[in-house]
Specification:
Strand order of the largest sheet: 3-4-6-5
Oligomer: single chain
């Protein structure tokens, strides 16, 4: 988000490597400042140095093949005294709904079926994120552990979302519609059995989700 003169709107640029995700974003009405959507990768940001006042990366860093390079790129495009704000998931065992899901997934589809989902939770502790930011040259780093309650209409809805609307769709590739629905139903049934009663209140699927949230400065 670039800083502009008083009484004018901020300039906001959104970036994603996935053309399909950009198409979804373009279809969402924007309130407030207009957003310019661009296709590009985090390891080679398509912007000149000293371009932005703020860089935001929500739940993306854990997916980047070279996290250090991505952070250096974020710092490169920040202006002096600019700030970066990032979030990543903590270990999956600290998010009980996701943990029940991956255990159920491995039981139904075999060991290692949950590899992609577990990869979302690759940060072991806040220090790991802080060290990466320090190594990239950031200063005044503050990392907090944040927990929010997540609610889905049902366990089935959660499992259906995970297997049909995330990279885990590859697990159902080349299967018939009937086979896909049977797998989703089986995983949901097993995840329900693995969940604490309070997570299933009123038929919904409710659980705390923990993440590490960092804010860092580009000050030298």
């Amino acid at each position: 988000m670039a800083r502009v003169a008083a009484k004018t709107r901020a300039m906001v640029t959104g970036l994603d490597l996935n053309e399909g995700m950009l198409a979804v974003a373009l279809g969402v009405p924007s309130e407030g400042s207009p957003i310019e959507w661009m296709e590009g990768g985090a390891l080679d940001l398509p912007f000149p140095a000293d371009r932005f006042d703020v860089v935001l990366c929500q739940l993306g860093l854990q997916f980047f093949p070279d996290q250090g390079r991505a952070l250096r790129e974020m710092r490169r495009v920040l202006r002096q005294s600019g700030r970066a704000a990032l979030s990543v998931y903590s270990p999956i065992e600290r998010t009980p709904g996701a943990n029940a899901f991956v255990v159920a997934l491995d039981e139904v589809l075999g060991a290692d079926a949950s590899r992609i989902k577990r990869g979302e939770h690759s940060f072991a502790d806040p220090t790991q994120l802080e060290t990466l930011l320090e190594d990239a040259g950031f200063r005044a780093i503050d990392v907090q552990t944040v927990t929010q309650m997540i609610a889905f209409p049902s366990v089935l809805d959660y499992v259906r979302f995970q297997l049909l609307a995330t990279p885990m769709t590859v697990l159902l590739a080349d299967r018939t519609e009937r086979e896909c629905q049977a797998i989703i139903s089986s995983v949901a049934s097993r995840a329900t059995a693995l969940s604490a009663p309070e997570m299933l209140d009123g038929g919904r699927f409710i659980f705390p989700q923990e993440a590490y949230v960092a804010v860092a400065s580009n000050d030298d």
